[in-house]
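One-letter codes give the sequence; the fold follows as tokens. Both lines appear below.
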Amino acid sequence: MRAPYTIDTFPGRQIIIDDQYYRYFGGTAYLGLQLDASFQEILIKNIKKYGTNYGASRKSNIQIKIYEEVEAYLAQLTGSPRGLTLSSGYLAGQFVCQYFSTKDYAFFYAPNAHSALYQSSIKPFTTFTALNIALREHLNTNPHKTPVLFLDSIDFSGFNYPAFEGLKALPLDQVIVVADDSHGIGVVGTKGEGVYPILVALGPKELIVCCSLGKGFGIQAGAIFSTQIRNEQFKNTAFYGGASPASPSAMASLVEAASLYEEKRKKLRSNIALFLSNVKYHGKFSIMPEHPALSYSNKGLTQYLEQKKIVVTSFNYPEKDAGLMSKIIISAAHTSEDIQFLASTVNTYFDTTH
């Protein structure tokens, strides 16, 4: 494997490495918005109106109304009672963790939970069976300490979204569920609503969904979806009051680009369908319905793709001692020719190594 690539521009459908063009099937720009001219025009227009940054507290005596407008819009989109925006998805996850870090709650982490949800040295359970046993034992021995379960809605194993079979076996009616939907919101669901409607239908004691808005909406921001009461409690914390919010120009662009998001989601789903209809070896990948990430564990495939001038996501994540994460990412920015070339290359590799 070559060393990490260093480039000078945003990695779109193509990147330049050592003066050579490579097709890029990695990253998290699922809708391909970051280099889209129409989306850039919307954002630039709003930067001229709202400025490049806004560093004041949301508790300030001067408040920009676009924040509440966007939070109401996002709540309606996801089907949640209330939405709250912050400057990043990682901050949103850490905020929720810190809020529940009191003697009244006990933390449990589902398999493959993201580090954005960690607030302690507690490690994720390796299986949902072990998690189920631990939760039920806790409820029997510590009934006054509410369990809080943290998980990634899309963990690239294909085990959570869309069926969430592991969750269904848990005593959810006695558990607060905190789900990170960074890789789902804006991408999956009829309107890009993410997994909130799926999870709330499972009947948890309480549901909180936090996420990045960068992957599915192309802006630097995070969000938390919760009940009205919990939303007010979040807003009354020093953590929330002391943090700078997301850029108002980004917030305004999220609402204005609604029709463009819909167009890009249709294109993305078309690209996913095109790849799946052309590639012969579905069983070599972990595939989730409507999702553009195809995970795999074949180092030889990554190396072969690189030889054919295709770069995918493949690195140790989230730290250097963690396991190798390899994913092919299909985006709305890819052309039909890109997709067909990728499928043909993958087929050729497995035809010769199968």
Q: What stands out?
A: The longest strand covers residues 146-152.
